[in-house]
Write the structure tokens for this entry.
Amino acid sequence: MEEQIFDIAIIGGGASGLSAAVSAAKSAKVAVIERLPRVGKKILSTGNGRCNLSNADIDKTCYYGDTELIDMTRAFDAKEFFEQMGLVTKTDKSGRIYPYSMTASSVLDALRYTADSLGAKFICDSKVEKIYKSGDIFVIRTADREIKSRAVVLAAGGSAAPSMGTDGSGFALARSLGHSVTKTYPALAPLRTDIKLVKALKGLRVYAAASLIIDGKKTLTRTGEVQFADGALSGICIFDLSLLAAEYVGRCSVSLDLAPDIDDIFSAVSDMAKRRAALPCGELLTGLFHKRIGQQIMRALPDITDSTPISALNNRHISKLCSVIKDMRFPITGLSDYSLAQASLGGVPANEIGAGLSSKKAEGLFLCGEVLNICGFCGGYNLDWAWRSGCTAGFSAAEYVMGI
Ligand SMILES: Cc1cc2nc3c(=O)[nH]c(=O)nc-3n(C[C@H](O)[C@H](O)[C@H](O)COP(=O)(O)OP(=O)(O)OC[C@H]3O[C@@H](n4cnc5c(N)ncnc54)[C@H](O)[C@@H]3O)c2cc1C
């Protein structure tokens, strides 16, 4: 029997791999090789099961890392990409784009059905352990088979959320094909802080403006819900800060402005102190914050206890409380591990990538998704990058095999 050689083998059946399959299978014989029993497991967990698939407002400032990689992709519109597959989308007030069904499985189904109807072959339960070139042909080894192809799209993702198939083996495969990989970090994840500072607040959520301070300089501020976890700060604002904090652990802190929409906090707290003069200090801030947060702020006054009458406070005390309300500091002592991260920061650098996301190290190799050194903030930017880069890599690989 004649040995089957695929035009394109796509390593990884996640967001970028399935998009690559949809764009490549229109003109080439494609195999998607996935280590898990089914493709797209991570897609199903995105956006809390609703899949925030893109954003109406995207530019390079929504990304961190080698943002010039975006210039190496083809023109792309995520809404149009999915609408061509019959998936209706909707955009919320903040610009986040979701499937109309608000169900991530609709997105996965659209990709799977389209790739399948174009003839792409899914080879699941097959972890790629080795790829090498024999002449012009790529040989792809899994534990129990060998698959051959004329081109390869490496779409095996990063190291975040290893239970969803991504254990960093994409980086190892890129290295084995001659690429380097920058230092990688868990990103879009809680930030660890001094356990004593959050112990009394554990389980609470506050509305705050969270700023990342690196070497004394404010670098990024995000406003929204912040959660106090076990020895960590969490929530979407913190996830965004984690992208910039990753390389500066030990040199950075998070500052929370707990009353971001009150400009004259001194007047507000002074007024509360007058109205509550007869109450104990432990009750001063309960009109503004959860009791435990108010009490934590009070700890900034060493000469005052929760039972001291509010009438004992002077302007110096109130000023000190206001400075904590506007700048509650948490030194960042560590990152979360990859199991809690939504993305990994770092990957194959842009200077090893050419037009159409082709590899400059191995002819016939194309790379896409999180294996490359680019990572977006929360808001649909990472999935947009996965679809965008996947479509480009799939299209370029198909053009490459047609031109051989
Ligand atoms: C919980 C969670 C929620 C998220 N929510 C959002 C969101 O709402 N919006 C957003 O924009 N981003 C979100 N993200 C991030 C987004 O899902 C990723 O950035 C995106 O999926 C990356 O696409 P990818 O194709 O590069 O990698 P992945 O989607 O991770 O796919 C890689 C695939 O390769 C397979 N694989 C790995 N190694 C091998 C191997 N050696 N052989 C064969 N197969 C292999 C894996 O099993 C996996 O299926 C979320 C991430 C997580 C973890």
